[in-house]
Amino acid sequence: MRSRPLESCAGSPACSTLGESPKPTFARGAVRPVRASLATPSAAARLTRGLLILALAAGTLGISACGDNLPEDNRVVATVNGKKITHGDLIRQLEQSRGPAAVMKLLDQQLIEAEAARRKLTLSDAERDAGLERAAARVGSMKDLKAKLNQLGIPLEAYRQEIATDLLLDKIAQQEVKVSEEEIKQYYGEHQEEFTKGPRTRARMMMFRDQSSAEAVLTALKEPGADFAGLAQNLSEDDATRSAGGDMGYFEKNDYATAITEAAFALKPGQISGIVKAPDGWVILKAEDHKAAGVMPLEEVRDQILQRLKRDKLQPMRDEWLVQARDKASLRIRDRVLREAVRASLGYVKPAPMPGEL
């Protein structure tokens, strides 16, 4: 990434600006430039407040915008043997120890939230909860996650916000990812073994916990005009297939219990089996179709390939979008060492957050 020119802040020689320079636009889709102005008085005040909150709640730093001289800098936060430690001393120490990471975190959060708002992207409570549960699974359990966060002094709500920002970035990147028909065909052609299947059959199933119920339904199925799918929806005790009228989809011989697959493969399309004893109860089957061994047609696996290619492209697109958005942002930092450290971080994107990385 090209180095940015430094400009003197008007009326304040103590700071410089990470200025803007023209950059290429996205190749995968138009993205309107994101303007994150952190140099205006109101934005600077918001930045300072956000950093101070982080400093107090999560052990990160606070940093003021260019030229700020905050009254609370002289507020005494502690004394050691009679010597005062001011709020400004605390902020400067945090600035030196965690400065670049905290600035980058706040910059990214503002860019992502602003772009999500522009695109009208939101997160439901279910999405937020699922994101937190996935994070908990990475460390063992929700109890383990809370213990880890507590050990690190990180509030759970702060970590939830970190995850929410990451999920919004996912949604932005998902809108930018494009997969062409040529890419789908190429993947299909290069992974034929992945789509090569043995003999398959498609059948419907009804399952019952007791044999007498299965016998009663089998008797009903022998009546003229009996509707297997309708009876399955109303009477089957198999939760996985009941709502689909018992439809099991296409499956191979090793996909279900041996008793079920042997009975299903022995039927001709349209035929109904007798009562089959299965591990979970008693089963009645109706064959729908059979397919010989071979490569699955492209149309049958197109959506599967599309989703896989989108997943493969998601992380690179997240990184690309974030670096591009940072490049368009205007960020002013008064401290030279901090400014240079942030400049060096602009082209680097950290992985998705883990506990302790807030």
| Low-pLDDT segments | 1-68
Structure class: alpha+beta
Number of strands: 11
- Helix fraction bin: 40-55%
Oligomer: single chain
The percent range for strand residues is 15-25%
Helix tally equals 11
How large, in whole angstroms, is the Cα Rg?
30 Å
Shape: elongated
Largest sheet: 4 strands, antiparallel
Mean pLDDT: 80
What string gives the helices and strands in order?
EEHEEHHHHHEEHHEHEEEHEH
Strand order of the largest sheet: 7-6-9-8
Distance between the termini: 26 Å
Helix-strand blueprint:
Blueprint: E1 6-9, E2 12-18, H1 41-58, E3 76-80, E4 83-86, H2 87-118, H3 125-139, H4 142-152, H5 156-176, H6 181-190, E5 196-197, E6 200-208, H7 211-221, H8 228-235, E7 247-251, H9 258-266, E8 276-278, E9 281-291, E10 294-295, H10 298-328, E11 331-333, H11 336-345
Briefly say what this structure is.
With 358 residues, this protein is an alpha+beta fold. The protein contains eleven helices and eleven strands.
Could you characterize the architecture of this molecule?
With 358 residues, the chain is α+β, with helices and mostly antiparallel strands. It is built from eleven helices and eleven strands. The protein has helices at residues 41-58, 87-118, 125-139, 142-152, 156-176, 181-190, 211-221, 228-235, 258-266, 298-328, 336-345; strands spanning 6-9, 12-18, 76-80, 83-86, 196-197, 200-208, 247-251, 276-278, 281-291, 294-295, 331-333. The strands form four sheets. The chain has a four-stranded antiparallel β-sheet with strand order 7-6-9-8. It has a three-stranded antiparallel β-sheet with strand order 1-2-11, covered by helices on one side. Strand 8 and strand 9 (281-291) form a beta hairpin. It is elongated and about 95 Å long. Residues 1-68 have low confidence and may be disordered.
